[in-house]
Please model this.
Amino acid sequence: MPEIQFQGKTFNVDDDGFIDNIESWCPEWVEWVKKEEGIAELTEDHWKVINVLQDYYKKNGIAPMVRILSKVTGFKLKRIYELFPSGPGKGACKMAGLPKPIGCV
Model:
């Protein structure tokens, strides 16, 4: 399994760069993904999406579908892509520490 070392932390990741366990999620991981995604600054809206993704995953064991993410956050899909240019699955789920989504997110 590949590893990423960043700011004194080592993260085990899959071939797509998602951390292997949500328990490994920490501020350093968020900073790594933010840098990789080209996001300059995280806003309250970013954190709202991240928190919703994590809460949903912890309750259901999967990432929410896009329509559920939009409904719970109140953000249209366009806004989510503005926040996470690579999308809700690749960017947002990765930053939230979720595994790579299998279906649509």
Q: What stands out?
A: The chain has one domain: 3-96. The longest strand covers residues 3-6.
